[in-house]
């Protein structure tokens, strides 16, 4: 066996310095890696030799990439070229669109840890509508109250947790609790920054999709991102213009949906009855895999035997509850709080509808392996007011600013509906559909149902887990936050503790 390092990320400034020193440094492109790996399937030379050839013949490597990726349609070759990108000065609203691309990596400035400095995006749509002045005035009012709220919450948190405050090392933690509740009053126009890592295939998709985005900020992001990367790997990034599919599908569906909703109105729907399996607070479970525990057990039997799936399903259906629990216990016997369940747990699905604040969604969207679709933010759904805001006696002021925010929202919405959500706050809510399998729910619970998680998403995750256990109690018998895992494990395996 031989393991050879093919390459690793370099800071672009370092690459620029190397190119200045060496005129032959045009091989400093990820395209050569893609070209070499593309040749593995048809060339008997060792892969490290293929990489050497590609480095020495960059133009030939680029021609090969164009032929293989675009001529032959083997787009996976572009996945071997990876980019790290700094993104600064974009709105929190646009970040939600950027982070829809699930096979990329993002690290975003957190409003839980960083104190706001009043930076925000002024959308071109707002300028063109002649509403820049009320837009800025509203956000200035939000931001002024944010700082007032932070100071009040900071005092409250330090007084409430005097034992922690006695230790200087806990100062940042306590200030973070104040920041995470104060942020509920700031807008989705607030500027943020993030580091983004993505391969060329996903980069091209991001460029094309955002080129069709209804917000000008989204289209500008696409153009600027393309300008940043186009000269680094030209053979792998080609189709960057908006397509009819990207540009026209959503508006067409909205028009079609409006007609269907008008035809099949509320009264007729009520006659059919509710299709929600269960509901708890802002979380509704409206679909789960039928006989989910049986399906999970059958999948484990299938991968652990030589039986066809049909027979495994038959065996699982005949098993006693205790026998099924024994199978799940055996699958999880050696699990620690940081271990993911076996992939067989992906056989059972759950579909949730959530009504969540922008604060909660900012965290929820990080679970990109789940299928997440959303509606626009909707003021009629109400807002989430942090309990600590009530505790410091500032809820009335909070709600007054929300009311003024919504007045501005409606003014913008009349001029440009797509741009109106910029002015809404982190307290405003929207409906989200989240489809996940049992394995993913284990992951969500570990992170978000843990006592260290932010309270808003923790409540949502706990409700999801509670509803999930009703339809697949055996499959989810060890699902919990990290802090609860040891206790649950002890109940399941008293002989091991």
Description:
The chain is α+β, with helices and mostly antiparallel strands. Among the domains are: 12-80, no CATH class; 84-234, Gyrase A, domain 2 (2-Layer Sandwich); 290-345, no CATH class. Helix content is 52%, strand content 11%. It contains 22 helices and 8 strands. The chain has helices spanning 12-21, 31-39, 47-56, 58-71, 92-98, 124-128, 132-160, 162-165, 171-182, 200-211, 216-229, 244-263, 266-272, 292-303, 309-318, 321-332, 358-364, 387-391, 395-415, 438-448, 455-471, 482-492, and strands at 82-91, 105-108, 191-199, 278-280, 283-288, 349-357, 371-374, 429-437. The strands form 2 sheets. Strands 4-5-6-8-7 form a 5-stranded antiparallel sheet. It has a 3-stranded antiparallel sheet with strand order 1-3-2. Strand 4 and strand 5 form a beta hairpin. Helix 2 (31-39) packs across helix 4, helix 10 (200-211) runs antiparallel to helix 11 and helix 20 (438-448) runs antiparallel to helix 21. It is globular. It starts with 11 loop residues before the first helix and ends in a 5-residue tail after the last helix. The mean pLDDT is 90.
Q: Descriptors for this entry?
A:
22 helices, three-stranded antiparallel beta sheet, alpha+beta, 497 residues, Gyrase A, domain 2, 52% helix, five-stranded antiparallel beta sheet
């Amino acid at each position: 066996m031989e393991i050879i390092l093919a390459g690793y990320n370099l800071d672009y400034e370092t690459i620029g310095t190397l190119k200045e020193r060496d005129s032959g440094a045009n091989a400093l492109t990820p395209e050569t890696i893609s070209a070499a790996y593309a040749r593995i399937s048809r060339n008997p030379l060792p892969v490290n030799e293929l990489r050497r050839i590609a480095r020495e013949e960059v133009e030939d490597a680029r021609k090969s990439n164009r032929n293989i990726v675009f001529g032959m349609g083997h787009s996976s070759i572009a996945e071997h070229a990876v980019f790290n990108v700094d993104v600064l000065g974009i709105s929190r609203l646009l970040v939600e669109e950027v982070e829809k691309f699930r096979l990329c990596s993002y690290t975003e400035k957190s409003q839980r840890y960083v104190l706001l400095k009043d930076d925000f995006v002024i959308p071109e749509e707002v300028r063109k509508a002649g509403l820049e002045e009320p837009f800025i005035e509203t956000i200035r009012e939000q931001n002024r109250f944010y700082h007032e709220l932070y100071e009040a919450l900071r005092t409250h948190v330090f007084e409430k947790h005097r034992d922690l405050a006695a230790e200087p090392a806990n100062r940042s933690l306590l200030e973070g609790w104040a920041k995470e509740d104060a942020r509920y009053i700031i807008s989705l126009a607030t500027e943020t920054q993030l580091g983004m890592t993505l391969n060329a295939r996903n980069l091209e998709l991001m460029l094309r999709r955002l080129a069709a985005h209804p917000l000008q900020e989204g289209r500008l992001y696409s153009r600027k991102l393309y300008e940043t990367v186009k000269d680094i790997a030209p053979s792998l990034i080609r189709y960057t213009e908006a397509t009819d599919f990207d540009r026209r599908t959503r508006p067409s569906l909205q028009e079609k949906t409006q007609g269907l909703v008008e035809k099949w109105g509320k009264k007729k729907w009520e006659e059919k009855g509710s299709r929600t399996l269960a509901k708890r607070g802002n979380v509704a479970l409206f679909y789960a895999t039928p006989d989910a525990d049986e399906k999970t057990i059958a999948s484990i039997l299938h991968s652990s035997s030589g039986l066809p799936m049909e027979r495994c399903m038959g065996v699982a259906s005949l098993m006693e509850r205790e026998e099924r629990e024994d199978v799940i216990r055996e699958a999880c016997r050696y699990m620690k709080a940081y271990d993911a369940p076996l992939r067989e747990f992906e056989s059972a699905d759950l579909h949730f509808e959530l009504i969540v604040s922008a604060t909660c969604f900012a965290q929820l969207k990080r679970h990109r392996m789940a299928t997440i679709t959303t509606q626009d933010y909707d003021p009629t759904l109400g807002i989430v007011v942090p309990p600590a805001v009530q505790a410091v006696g500032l809820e009335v002021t909070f709600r007054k600013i929300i009311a003024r925010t919504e007045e501005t929202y409606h003014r913008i919405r009349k001029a440009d509906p797509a741009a109106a959500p910029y002015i809404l706050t982190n307290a405003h809510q929207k409906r989200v559909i989240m489809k996940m399998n049992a394995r993913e729910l284990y992951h969500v619970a570990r992170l978000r149902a843990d006592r260290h998680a932010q309270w808003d998403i923790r409540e949502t995750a706990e409700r999801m887990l509670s509803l999930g256990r009703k339809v697949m109690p055996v499959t989810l018998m060890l699902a919990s936050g990290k802090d609860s895992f040891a206790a649950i494990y002890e109940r399941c395996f008293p002989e091991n503790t």
